[in-house]
Automatic annotation (TrEMBL):
PROSITE patterns: FKBP_PPIASE (PS50059). One of its GO terms (molecular function) is peptidyl-prolyl cis-trans isomerase activity. This is peptidylprolyl isomerase. GO terms for cellular component: chloroplast; thylakoid. It is an enzyme of class 5 (isomerase). The lineage of its organism: Eukaryota, Sar, Stramenopiles, Ochrophyta, Bacillariophyta. It comes from Nitzschia inconspicua. Residues 1-23 form the signal peptide.
Length: 241
């Protein structure tokens, strides 16, 4: 078996996955990461599913044509065998497909989310218990909203919600760059979703501002509702999951 030299980044992904699962059904974070490093395979329970992380990841160097790219682009692009990589560059896996309607560009989507940094030891920058049914049973006021196509949320996450169905839960891996948070919006007021706590925003910015770590992000997202334009500048409320 080939020694996996990029264990820190992969271990961080494992911690992020563990952080999104039910702590009552999983071993401790330290125990889990020790098990991963010794066996190169870690299985985690998430919403009733077994997630098996393949230790052999494909890494490819990216060309750095300018000084700016060398400062702000990741040196490596990591492929996750258990996620589907799209042509745009973001990757996903569906935890639950959902059985409701899918949104169109111009629709307002209501969603809940959590987020983790992969290059900062799986630290959450928005933690809400992960994509487990009951953890998302909240009042509408607690959810996030965006109009698809508006660019109000990071492109990777917005694209990921376009073919989801109401009630669906999806994990989305967003690489640093055009698909992620813009470098000139450190407050995340222009492009969200914005962490709801100061510590979360600090953890996120620590990674985004640090070219020495993998700035890839992991989002857990559940599509709660799709609201259609009513022709009067507002939206007609859709059915909730």
């Amino acid at each position: 078996m080939r020694l996996f030299h990029a264990s820190n980044a992969t271990a961080a992904l494992v911690l992020a996955l563990l952080g999104s699962a039910n702590a009552l059904t999983l071993p401790g974070r330290r125990e889990a990461i020790q098990q991963f490093l010794s066996t190169y395979v870690t299985s985690a329970v998430l919403g009733g599913m077994i997630l098996t992380n393949n230790p052999s990841r494909n890494w490819a160097s990216t060309d750095q044509s300018t000084e700016e790219e060398s400062m702000f682009a990741p040196k490596f692009v990591q492929e996750y065998a258990d996620f589907v990589k799209t042509n745009e560059g973001w990757s996903y896996r569906d935890v639950s497909v959902g059985n409701g309607a899918s949104p169109n560009v111009g629709d307002r989507v209501v969603f809940d989310w959590s987020g983790y940094t992969i290059g900062y030891f799986g630290r959450p920058f928005e933690a809400k218990g992960g994509p487990q049914g009951g953890a998302f049973d909240k009042r509408d006021v607690d959810f996030s909203r965006t109009v698809l196509g508006s660019g109000e949320v990071v492109k990777g996450l917005e694209s990921a919600m376009r073919d989801m169905k109401v009630g669906g839960v999806r994990q989305v891996i967003v690489p640093y760059g055009a698909l992620s948070y813009p470098a000139d919006d450190g407050s995340h007021d222009r492009v969200g979703p914005k962490p709801t706590t100061f510590s979360g925003q600090r953890a996120l910015n620590f990674v985004l501002d640090n070219p020495r770590v993998d700035r890839t992000l992991l989002f857990n997202v559940k599509l709660i509702r799709v609201d259609k334009p009513n022709g009067k500048g507002g939206f007609s409320r859709g059915d909730r999951a």
